[in-house]
Predict the structure of Cytochrome c2.
Amino acid sequence: MNRIRNVAMMLAAVLSLAAGASHAEDAQDTVAFGKKLTTNNCAVCHTFGKGEPNGQGPNLFGIVGRPFASDASFKYSAGMKAAAPGKVWDAKLLDAWLTDTQTVAPGNAMTYFEGDPARRQKIIAYLSTLH
Ligand code: HEC
């Protein structure tokens, strides 16, 4: 009886380990796919490496946790600056921004949106790794 219980417990432990591993793989896939989406869709205007020069838009290294429109080396639009007070970039604000930048900062100059929530989530997962 005891042996059967031990085997059952071991099996449960192995299964939960396997589930953990596959979650980790899912997270890795999400970030890898997010990187691809970001490279394909944002890199025409943004750079992502530490200290890289701005493009048409500001460098986005460390964007998660950075105050809104706060890169001193970038000349933000008036709309962007007007919307900045009190805002810090987090996943929720990035999601709103990529859905429709004009609801976040009316009159801003970024002419891009991503309508697919799953793709936005992957892009944001990748951006969160840039620290
Ligand atoms: C066509 C060019 C273009 C594309 C494509 C683009 N952006 Fe932008 N982005 C800009 C510009 C320009 C600004 C600055 C807007 C302003 O000052 O009004 C900006 C601003 C931003 C900001 C605010 C940064 C800050 O310092 O507060 C974030 C975040 C951002 N973009 C993320 C993205 C992401 C993520 C993508 C891809 C999914 C993307 N952008 C695609 C041009 C672009």
Remarks:
- The pocket of heme C is lined by residues 41-42, 44-46, 56-58, 60, 63, 68-69, 71, 76-77, 79-80, 97-98, 108-112, 114, 123 (CB under 6 Å).
- Helices lie at 2-41, 78-83, 91-99, 101-104, 117-127.
- The chain has one domain: 25-127.
- The chain has a mean pLDDT of 91.
